[in-house]
Sequence to fold (926 residues):
Amino acid sequence: MSASLLPALRTLLPTATIWDAAELASRDPGFDARNFGAAALVRPTDTGGVAALVKFCAEHGVSLVAQGGRTGLAGGASTSAGQVICDLSGLNRIEEIDPFARVAIVQAGVTLGALQEAAAEHGLDPGIDLAARGSATIGGMVSTNAGGIMAFRNGTMRHRVLGLEAVLPDGRVFCDLTRVLKTSAGYDLKHLFIGAEGTLGIVTRVALRLDPVAGASATALVGVPDAASAQQIVRHFLGSTSARLSAAEILWRNFASFMQRALGYSPGQLPLDAPCLLVLGLGADSMEAARAALEDGLAAIWEEAGIIDGLVASSDAQAAQMWRLREETVEIGRAHPMAPSFDVSVPGGGLDAYVARIEAGLKALDASYAPYVYGHLADGNLHISINCDGPVPHERHQAIEDVLYDGLREAGGSFSAEHGVGLEKREAYERHADPVKRDLARAIKGLIDPNNILNPGKIISTE
Amino acid sequence: MSASLLPALRTLLPTATIWDAAELASRDPGFDARNFGAAALVRPTDTGGVAALVKFCAEHGVSLVAQGGRTGLAGGASTSAGQVICDLSGLNRIEEIDPFARVAIVQAGVTLGALQEAAAEHGLDPGIDLAARGSATIGGMVSTNAGGIMAFRNGTMRHRVLGLEAVLPDGRVFCDLTRVLKTSAGYDLKHLFIGAEGTLGIVTRVALRLDPVAGASATALVGVPDAASAQQIVRHFLGSTSARLSAAEILWRNFASFMQRALGYSPGQLPLDAPCLLVLGLGADSMEAARAALEDGLAAIWEEAGIIDGLVASSDAQAAQMWRLREETVEIGRAHPMAPSFDVSVPGGGLDAYVARIEAGLKALDASYAPYVYGHLADGNLHISINCDGPVPHERHQAIEDVLYDGLREAGGSFSAEHGVGLEKREAYERHADPVKRDLARAIKGLIDPNNILNPGKIISTE
Fold:
């Protein structure tokens, strides 16, 4: 877009905040420096404003990139010169929380944290949680099909969305704000917009399921010989109906040791000396019941799972200490700026073999590579960071991806579990996604956005 | 299709069973007499056979209708002269149950009952249940996005499917047999085939989540003044983490009284004298724990919810007696052959007002109308049968639909909760679904099936 169109935009959207390229250059672009590479940013305040902006851009052949909290990890919100950013943070109202129906109607720019707070007032919770909760927006989470810590129980964002409203590339509004779980009333087209990273429509409003929160939650840190052992423990707790497993995060030793050093934890402070650590969260009607259920459950499975060591947190402070080991992953970026990082789903019983295979494969590429591996045990979603500064050369990056992704699809896994494809995984998508699926995806992009107005070049390369 | 093509089909698919129209006329068509109106039925034995059949039909301009258990209630599998049935019952193998990953890979023709049995051997369950379990197939349940009794907790079929394989109208195979819950790897196109009633592809294989089963389950029958009271009870049990609510079925008095008479239950045998009855199922680690949790929970909420009467089943036989009140709905068809029946989702707190409104609206149409209303309380899915013989004249049917469906979409409900659109609700779809959604659906049908080969005229009218 040329700057000459800005006055027309200001006239069209008098209540919207509009920044030009110079203003953008002076602002914080979020997790990705490329987020603010556009000609302008427009922040409408309602669905009508978004629709007007989309129509304007379509008429002028200007491409639009929707942005939420700008916490994406795959470059899905990056922009280039001439593009316009549709900033959704002006659509920031929680329109309704229906405690009876356990449904929230929220605008796309509401942060996860704001929704968590509002729902908690009714003893409810969105059922999804992730570290970027303070800035990640519901619209962005829908657009990347975010997962997080509780997905093994509650599903990903796709499973939490009951209905949504989205502005199509021609400015029409697709409105399916269904609030019920059960609907079999024709093609469920809202799923086209979930995980589409703003390439098929701009999500403006969402109806989300809420769940009752457990009365109290207890945390344990358990040392185990391998992931298979950790999975036995998880299966034991999932099979019991007397308490509700709410988290099962696994940390392989290389990551756990790194975090222990980075956080300055002294040896012996926690049970840390094991090939794998498992952080368990368990909800129950009271704190006593939660702690007792964790202790009893671990005792019952101790021998069978070959547990090495374990501790149920006796205070919130101790629980927080356990969680920091898993969540303060920003420390990796401090030690290895822009370390190459990946996000895969590995099916069921294959975790130990997968980790052994990639450790060997990476070492074959470079003898100094010793990946940090951690993630969501119960759904097989592993995060992997390489212990080197990034970005690495393109060819090396591809070689690392091949080590990490080869065979994953055939095994039923995924090369992108919860971060999306964006720009970062576009080549991986071409190499590792089903070709019929890719053909169909390209055809659908061409059908819905024939002029390639919305977030061009993301997911599907347009050359 | 003319009969002259049958020999070529037999040559193409030597292992497939093939019936001509005469043979079809001598067989049981299932729930809908129109299911066997086709020129031929072909029963391939694998995905390759289905693909070859689709290609053959596409080349000869013959339309194909996929059929599973033929238990659909919306005419989605009905056929007409010249069409060919693709009978999926030959794809009847449970290919794998991975107890560790809690995933089943099944062919489309496997019945729900067969999968439930196979999963139970591993202490697992598909997490979805419905009365037609003995004949309904996984492929059919995927294609109608079936829901059933446990959807409020476990989601509908859409939420249970991890991956699927489908044959496209041009014979290509869309293969996305992902086994993991978390994947954000481009458009999740499998959702196009879920709930599409075989109009966009023929589902051949499915990867499904399995859940650990509770150790034991207890049942209660509770009399309450209204649905709001029943919802208070449900919310109480959902909020507790010490047991797992597995069923919450509601029966309005007119239906409950009818069933009581039809089943010959004597007064006083069960607590039946209340405006609404609630059948509750609760899972726990042992039968004692389940019964105690039901009793304690009901006692705790008794006053607040204004419970009129309640009984926790003391034996499996008594529990079965309670369940028959809800499940033996075939009695309606005996008393009122082909009674007009409907299947809606009503959001949250609106159940009592909705039922009052439709009772009055139906009475205004015909003073003798007193609908049987029952369904899945916790997700608002109500089944409604009119107490008259069917089919009623077209205009009357539409007037009944208007009473039942008007305002539902605006309130966030659905005119088709779990039965699909098929033929029966095509007009309702045109009148009550979002017009932008309908436009987009029609465009997608045109994109994927330009020659209208697969199940033409279902969901989307093709005139």
In short: Chain B has a mean pLDDT of 95. Chain B touches chain A through 96 residues (CB under 8 Å). The radius of gyration of chain B is 23 Å. Residues 216-328 of chain B form a domain with the Alpha-Beta Plaits fold (CATH 3.30.70.2190).
